[in-house]
């Protein structure tokens, strides 16, 4: 049983504040990697997930990406930290939580991409102007924020 499941045993479905990380992974064509998630309802999102005890947000990002995509990340660049009322989620099982999400971006990764099928339907790179309509709303905002800012090139 993981950390979140242990907390849920004690507090039930009451709202919690949880910390997570996601990563905007870019390929050589500057397309973004998205994961079609089994829950909720086959929506698309950025690879990532919730923090475990004693992890940093960067460690969470690396672990979750490895678990979900089989990719090993190199250098991570901080995009932003997202929190607030618009980060409220009510899961299909009734669990309620607010997520504080640290979003990173990178084009530095290695490995053979493979979807982890208990959580994922598929993985696919998308051009920024062709993102799926069924994308997680908060992840859409993160991708939009990434597109709107001029960042120092990652290869420098």
Walkthrough of the structure:
- There is one protein chain.
- The protein has about 160 residues and is α+β, with helices and mostly antiparallel strands.
- The chain has one domain (about 5-130): Nucleoside Triphosphate Pyrophosphohydrolase, CATH 3.90.79.
- The protein has 3 helices and 10 strands; from the N terminus they run αββββαββββββα.
- Strands 1, 4, 6, 7 and 8 form a 5-stranded mixed sheet that branches. Strands 3-2-10 form a 3-stranded antiparallel sheet, with no helix packed on it.
- β7 and β8 (about 95-105) form a beta hairpin.
Short account of what is shown:
The chain is built from three helices and ten strands, in the order H-E-E-E-E-H-E-E-E-E-E-E-H.
- Report on the biggest sheet: 5 strands, mixed
Structural class: alpha+beta
Gross CATH architecture: Alpha-Beta Complex
Proportion of beta-strand residues: 25-35%
Mean pLDDT reading: 93
Output the helix-strand order: HEEEEHEEEEEEH
User: Low-confidence runs (pLDDT<50, min 5 residues)?
Assistant: none
List keywords for this structure.
Nucleoside Triphosphate Pyrophosphohydrolase, 156 residues, 22% helix, three-stranded antiparallel β-sheet, globular, alpha+beta, 3 helices, five-stranded mixed β-sheet
List the helices and strands and how they pair.
Blueprint: H1 3-11, E1 16-25, E2 32-37, E3 44-45, E4 48-50, H2 57-69, E5 72-73, E6 77-82, E7 88-90, E8 96-106, E9 109-110, E10 120-126, H3 137-148
């Amino acid at each position: 049983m993981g950390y979140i499941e242990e907390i849920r045993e004690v507090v039930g479905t009451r709202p919690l504040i949880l910390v997570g990380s996601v990563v905007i992974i870019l390929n050589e064509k500057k397309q973004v990697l998205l994961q079609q998630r089994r829950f909720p309802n086959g929506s698309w999102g950025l690879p990532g997930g919730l923090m475990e005890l004693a992890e940093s947000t960067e460690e969470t990002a690396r672990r979750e990406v490895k678990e979900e995509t089989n990719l090993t990340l190199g250098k991570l660049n901080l995009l932003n930290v997202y929190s607030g009322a618009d980060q409220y989620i009510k899961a299909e099982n009734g669990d309620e939580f607010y997520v504080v999400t640290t979003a990173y971006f990178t084009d530095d990764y290695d490995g053979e991409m493979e979807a982890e099928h208990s959580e994922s339907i598929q993985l696919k790179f998308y051009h920024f102007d062709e993102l799926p309509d069924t994308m997680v709303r908060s992840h859409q905002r993160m991708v939009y924020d990434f597109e709107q800012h001029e960042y120092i090139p990652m290869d420098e």
